[in-house]
Amino acid sequence: MGVVSEEAIDEFLELIDQVEEPLKKTFESVHQGYRREHLSRFLKARDWNVSKAHTMLVECLRWRVNNEIDSILSKPIVPSELYSCVRDSQLIGMSGYTREGLPVFAIGVGLSTFDKASVHYYVQSHIQINEYRDRVLLPSMSKKNGRPITTCVKVLDMTGLKLSALSQIKLVTIISTIDDLNYPEKTNTYYVVNAPYIFSACWKVVKPLLQERTRKKVHVLSGCGRDELLKIMDITSLPHFCRRGSSGSSHHTEGVDCFSFDHPFHQQLYNYVKHHYETQGHAEPAKQGSFHVGLPEPEAEIAKTIESELHKFENCNGLCQPAYDRKDVHETL
């Protein structure tokens, strides 16, 4: 980190020390002892403009206070059958760690349907995973490795991506906006695998709308991406849909489907939340009801661009879509 960067962080620290008490308290819960690293993420997200980064962080802290985010890890989604439904339709899981100690999150973009629960349950679940990552997994790996580990990598499986995804764009962009505003720069790299032609068409028009910093993080791999991903992680950490012979997110070959509620990550997360609810001294079991979080306005330009591109395919009734070929898809990107 250069001198200019260090000076910006020092200036940022002086500003953040002046915020009111409720914001200071939630700030303590999120930086987990790594204040400079935490502030640097907001600075990166605002191109090292201290004033803009300060405004962004204060708004994030207010969002946390207003929506009681610090307590979200003691708000279980019950009954467990409902949580299982969320897991079956919002495909995300953690398959392991890179050799550098970064958590590997797998996301089934193409086969997530978001049709078995209300939008608030999906948002609650997503934020709980973020908070568990930041408050439990990353501090644990930082301690284990003797250095700050504050980011993760994400492997995005595009298997099954089709025109019906149009109905999910608003929810996906809401979740993405929550991450952009409140969890900036938490993903080190995005690896896209199993990409059909429809993804390449959408990516071509969306890519120019993204900041260069974000574009550089996205790597579209050929096929299931196994060989490339094995350069940064062991096979035991490889998502199930990247293993040779896998037919996509809906099946697994070697190892456990990391999207499943039965996977150790989801069992640990669910039991962690349930335990924290019980240790708060609640006499009654948790009742069904989602944890409502104020939903931001999604990024309109990107959402509209994707919608427009998908409508083009829809209007062609598939006639204008070239034959599916993973190698061709990779080369066009």
From TrEMBL:
It comes from the Eukaryota. Residues 82-239 form the CRAL-TRIO domain. PROSITE patterns: CRAL_TRIO. This is CRAL-TRIO domain-containing protein. It comes from Brassica carinata.
